[in-house]
């Protein structure tokens, strides 16, 4: 199997942003805040927007425009007052991220990483400067 056939494109959303959307969606599942306070929908949606925007900008190094657009979409998804919407969107994105990183692993385990670490010279007291 060639390296090109094993490549999967990375997901459009950082895994942490997808996980945050699932976690915020879980708030609706466990606490049913929309029944008590309809403004909770705006609060959780805003929190999803800010979280996704910051993760995309500073961890995934997206431009501000792309980060805000992704944050807006994920904030709307997290703010839907049903506990299924955020999970239905976040879980496939999280799985996509896991599969794309898993496919990048070497075929025979971590031997390449260990071999590189063994070949690298170690620092001694005289080499610190």
Task: List the topology elements.
Layout lengths: L14 H17 L1 H4 L2 H20 L5 H16 L5 H19 L7 H9 L10
Helix pairs in contact: 1-3, 1-4, 1-5, 3-4
Helix fraction, binned, reads 55-70%
Q: Which ranges are low-confidence, i.e. pLDDT below 50, for 5 or more consecutive residues?
A: none
Which secondary-structure class do the elements indicate?
A: mainly alpha
Q: How far apart, in Å, are the first and last alpha carbons?
A: 45 Å
Overall average pLDDT: 79
Order of helices and strands: HHHHHH
Sum up the overall morphology in one term.
elongated
User: Total domains, how many?
Assistant: 1
- The number of E-state strands comes to 0
Radius of gyration: 20 Å
Strand content: under 5%
Helical segment tally? 6
Major β-sheet annotation: none
Q: Could you please describe the fold and organization of this structure?
A:
With 129 residues, the protein is mostly helical. It has one domain. Helix content is 66%, strand content 0%. The chain contains 6 helices and no strands. The chain has helices spanning 15-31, 33-36, 39-58, 64-79, 85-103, 111-119. 27% of the residues are buried. The mean pLDDT is 79.
